[in-house]
Design a protein that fits this description.
Structural class: alpha/beta
CATH superfamily of the largest domain: NAD(P)-binding Rossmann-like Domain
Number of strands: 12
Helix content: 40-55%
Order of helices and strands: EHEHEHHEHEEHEEEHEHEEHH
CATH class of the largest domain: Alpha Beta
Bound molecules: NADP nicotinamide-adenine-dinucleotide phosphate
Number of domains: 2
Number of helices: 10
Radius of gyration: 19 Å
Shape: globular
Strand content: 15-25%
CATH architecture of the largest domain: 3-Layer(aba) Sandwich
Distance between the termini: 44 Å
């Protein structure tokens, strides 16, 4: 069994990765309190003790609003902390996956699904921090693999007090009889977290670099949900287009998986996965 270190394992993705890889690896998953990634000495000490061969770096300030409100504090975690992990992994000879985001494409005017080689200038603080972290981590450790993740969901909540997600919010709103309003001026992928964790196994074999890593989707969230409902024979008057969000500057952060597919890794489309996961819930209604 290989030794694996997972950061941010108290969070949404890290906890799911830890549960998954505990089946096949010796997983060390320090809490934020046990290893603060902004403290390089603490990171070094942890690497010395855990001697990981594989690293998954999920710790972050992942709330885009929090990054906007607290740019310096979030930069320390998202940029400096990530540099500490990439460098320590490189020095330990451990293969390292680091989580980036599709938000780095926010602000791009390129049409269609984005590719990894575009020149970018992200429109929000979080996206800029993630892009800079990609560049700095690769400079420090060219063997590390930066995964540009989409918005993820899981029908099942794993941690008490865990932040909600697209899927569980949809079900909760449906249950409560609230309007399901989704933007029409926004193109983005949505990915089942289980598919991300599963594909991380293969991602350890990728050459160092940046990869789009999530489900492809050429539809806005409103059309995505509408088509999933329709294909399942489900209809509700609660579903409504949100025409206001992103109207002044329509957003496109959808990603092409062409590069990842060339390396033999693929994801189901957002439509395929969402339909599959919604089916058991909508059949009950
Ligand atoms: N969730 C998504 O849909 C999504 C989409 C695209 C990209 N991503 C990226 O994927 C990664 C995982 O996201 P997530 O949703 O799992 O995030 P999350 O639920 O917010 O979890 C982040 C974890 O990082 C920990 N953390 C924060 N600051 C830390 C520090 N200084 N030292 C050590 N740990 C620290 C947090 O601990 P505390 O709570 O104790 O502070 C928390 O356990 C992040 O890089 C995120 O930016 C996520």
């Amino acid at each position: 069994m290989k030794r694996m270190l997972i950061t941010g394992a108290g969070g949404f993705l890290g906890s799911r990765a830890a549960a998954h890889f505990r089946e096949t690896c010796l997983v060390t998953a320090p809490t934020h309190r046990e290893m603060d990634i902004t403290d390089e000495a603490s990171v070094r000490q942890f690497f010395k003790e855990a001697r990981p061969e594989l690293v998954i770096h999920c710790a972050a300030v992942s709330d885009t609003g929090a990054c906007q409100r607290h740019p310096e504090a979030s930069r320390l975690v998202n940029l400096t902390g990530s540099e500490h992990i990439a460098k320590a992994a490189g020095d330990a000879g451990a293969k390292c996956l680091l989580c980036s985001s599709d938000q780095i494409y926010f602000g791009s005017t390129a049409a269609g699904a984005h590719t990894e080689d575009e020149r970018l200038s992200p429109a929000n603080v979080y996206g800029r921090q993630k892009l800079e972290a990609e560049e700095r981590c690769l400079a420090l450790n060219p063997d590390c693999v930066l995964l540009r993740l989409t918005w993820m969901y899981d029908p099942v909540s794993v941690n008490p007090g865990e932040h909600s997600d697209f899927f569980r919010t949809l079900l909760a709103n449906l249950e409560a009889g609230r309007i399901l309003a989704y933007p029409v001026h926004d193109l983005r992928g949505l990915t089942y977290a289980g598919d991300v964790v599963q594909n991380m196994e293969k991602a350890f074999s990728l050459p160092g670099g940046v990869y789009n890593f999530g489900s492809e989707n050429d539809k806005n969230p409103y059309d995505t949900v509408r088509e999933a409902f329709r294909s399942l024979g489900f209809s509700t008057p609660l579903l409504a287009p949100n025409e206001e969000a992103f109207r002044p500057n329509p957003r496109n952060i959808s990603m092409s998986l062409a590069k990842l597919k060339r390396h033999g890794i693929d994801f189901p489309s957002t439509f395929q996965a969402l339909t599959k996961h919604l089916a058991p819930f909508l059949k009950e209604r």
